Every structure is written in structure tokens, then in C-alpha cells.
Amino acid sequence: MTSPGTSPGAVRPGGRTAKVREAVRAATLAELADKGFDGLTVEGVALRSGVHKTTVYRRWGSVEGLAADALDLASGEPWPVPDTGDAAGDLRELARLVVTGFADPETGPVSTAFISAAVRNPPTAGALHAFFAARHEQSAVIVGRAVERGEMPAGTDAAEVIRTCVAPLYYRLFITGEPVDEAVADRAAAAALAAARAGVFTGG
Amino acid sequence: MTSPGTSPGAVRPGGRTAKVREAVRAATLAELADKGFDGLTVEGVALRSGVHKTTVYRRWGSVEGLAADALDLASGEPWPVPDTGDAAGDLRELARLVVTGFADPETGPVSTAFISAAVRNPPTAGALHAFFAARHEQSAVIVGRAVERGEMPAGTDAAEVIRTCVAPLYYRLFITGEPVDEAVADRAAAAALAAARAGVFTGG
């Protein structure tokens, strides 16, 4: 479908290369949702995307390459950073997004597959860590606005507030196997806010 | 080494059965530390423990059975629940135990192997979840003492304080791949304490 040696980005955005990349990415996510990382194969992605297997091998190399590229695309994508008018609402909304994302029958299994794969697959781990770093950075605006409004002290470390807000949800989902729901999300958000207000995340 | 059909606990504690169980458990942990869950085999455990392979198969059934039994034993074992004299010190000590445990060249790889295995192996997940439930329960005394001393409000949910204290460490270790150290532990402990003091974990 493309000339040999063509790399992603060598063709204009929206062109044939971008379309192939998007088709392969959609197929990768669908395969992950259906089969998990252990069931992800270059053949399966080729078949589902309609892109020739040799093209997928040449440009993505392996299932790790497919997973990493899907995560790279996700890192750069817009998502609804909460903007409710106050820090309490924004953090609550952020925590609830984690709960609803993992409960969603489409996105939940894909996110779970990425995290499961990352614990034993270094290239996928690298892409996943970059994804979370991007999410922490994108969420920092919540803390910036809170400081401007006087809801948190100046010098509050934004990423630490975000981590503290979502960590209890990931801890339950991936470590202790305990359930998460809106009440759990709201409590995690309230804890992060109380700690931020108390000045736990300033200085250091 | 034992009669066919002998089950763990059927022989007096400290007797031959207990010794076999302990030898097999020590071998399981050593194999996990060396090779991870993917490298754990009944043969490897039999060889390392000196217990005959057919005995290991008969009594533990599989690598999942070996991992679950090692976790069961760990759940019931004493460990140094912090008692420093105040809630701030106890929570800081608890968070630091997580950091030092994962940094330890002997215990770190074993704990990591259990958590990695649990994300895709339901029997191991069940044993791991029971292990964490036991740890939360054992740590509850920290919150009980804090409430008695007036450092936290009455009715504070002990497990929620403990989860909030350790979650940011597990989030960094297993989700975002960010480093943990004493400063990260101390901040997580301070955040849990500030939230508890603010009454985030009461009622519900």
C-alpha cells in the first residue's frame, strides 16, 4: 500500500500513510479488546485492518511496535480535561473518568490489556509510561486553575495532586482487586484535595 | 516423603508435613525471585526443594497452587506493623516499608512476580487479593491508635487510610513506571494523614 521504506509521517497528514496508520491502530485496539495482549498478533491486526501483513511487519515490526504506536497516538489525542469551576469538582470528575473508562466495555479491556502487558513487556511499558506522563501534564491545568483561585497553595506540585487523585483507583483495580465506583472516586478526589490544601504537595 | 492423600495440616505443626510445605514454599519464592512467574515450574521447585516432583504435583497441583500457597503462608506471617508513637510516624514507616520491600534484591522480585502474575492469572490474583486484605486488616491498628490519641476523627475508615497511604507507591511502581524513594513515601503518608484529619474517610 505504500512504497518500501516509507515511514510514518513521511507522507502528508490525512494522506494514505495516515489512513493506514489509523486503520492499523483501530485494528490493534479492537484486537486488544477482544483477545488481550497475549492474543495480539501481527496477522490478526493485518486481517482486521485490511492492511497487508508484510506492510504491518515492515512498518511496526512486532506486536510491541503495534501497541507502542497505538499508545503514542493516544498520548497526543485530546480528551475532556475536567473544567467544572472548582478544584473539588475537577478532581472528582477526573477520578470518575478513570472509573468509567475501566468500566466501559470498549475502552476498559484495552486499557487493562496495556497495563497487563506493560508489567512484563519493556517496550510496551515505555510507551505506557510516556502515555501517563502526558496525561499528568495535560491534567496539570486543573491544579494551575486551583492555585489561581486560591483553592490550593502556590507552588503545589500538579502531577503529585493528579497522581494522588487517581492512584487509589489503580491500586484497587490492578493490585488488590477491590471494586471501584463513583463513591470510591469521589473519596480519592477529596483526599487529594485535602492533602493539597494542607500543603503536602508544595516545596520538597 | 508423605503418605498418599496426606493434606497440609493433617500432621502436627513442625512435623514432616510442615517441613515439606516450608521447603516447597522457600523454593517457590527463590524460583520466583530468579525467574519470575513465567519461569516458575513444578519441576524447578521440586529440584530446588529436594521434594519429589510427584509429591509437589499431588499436593500443589500446579504453579498456580504453589504461588497461592506461598501467598497464603505470607498472609498469616507476622510483620513489623509500625508503632512509632504517632500517626504521622506510623504512616511514614508503613509507606517506607513498601519502598524498601520492592527495592530489596530478595523480596522485591518476588513481590513483583506475584503482582505481574495476578494481572493475568485468576487463581494467583485471588491469593494476592486475600494477602492485601490481610495486610489492610493488620495495619488497621495504626488508625485505631490514631483515633484514640485524637489524631484522626472517630469513625475513620482504617483500610481507606492505609490504601491512600500506599496507593501512590504502587501506582508509580506498576502503572506509570515512575521511581519511588523515601521522599515519595513520606509525601504519600503525609497526604493520607491530611485527608484523614480532614475527615475524608469518615462516614460514607
Euclidean distance between termini CA atoms of chain A? 53 Å
Return the structural class of chain A: mainly alpha
Mean pLDDT of chain A: 90
Largest sheet of chain A: none
Largest interface: A-B, 41 and 41 residues
**Pattern of helices and strands of chain A:** HHHHHHHHH
Number of strands of chain A: 0
Rg over CA atoms of chain A = 19 Å
Strand residues, percent of chain A:
under 5%
Low-confidence stretches of chain A: 1-12
* Portion in helices of chain A: 55-70%
Number of helices of chain A: 9
Overall 3D geometry of chain A?
Answer: elongated
Oligomer: homodimer
Structure write-up:
The structure is a homodimer of 204-residue chains. With 204 residues, the first copy, chain A, is mainly α. In chain A, 69% of the residues lie in helices and 0% in strands. Chain A is built from nine helices and no strands. Chain A has helices spanning 16-35, 42-49, 53-60, 63-76, 87-103, 107-118, 122-148, 158-176, 182-197. The A-B interface holds A 36, 38, 115-116, 118-120, 125-126, 128-129, 132-133, 136, 160, 163-164, 166-168, 170-172, 174-178, 183, 187-188, 190-192, 194-195, 197-198, 200-201, 204 and B 36, 38, 115-116, 118-120, 125-126, 128-129, 132-133, 136, 160, 163-164, 166-168, 170-172, 174-178, 183, 187-188, 190-192, 194-195, 197-198, 200-201, 204.
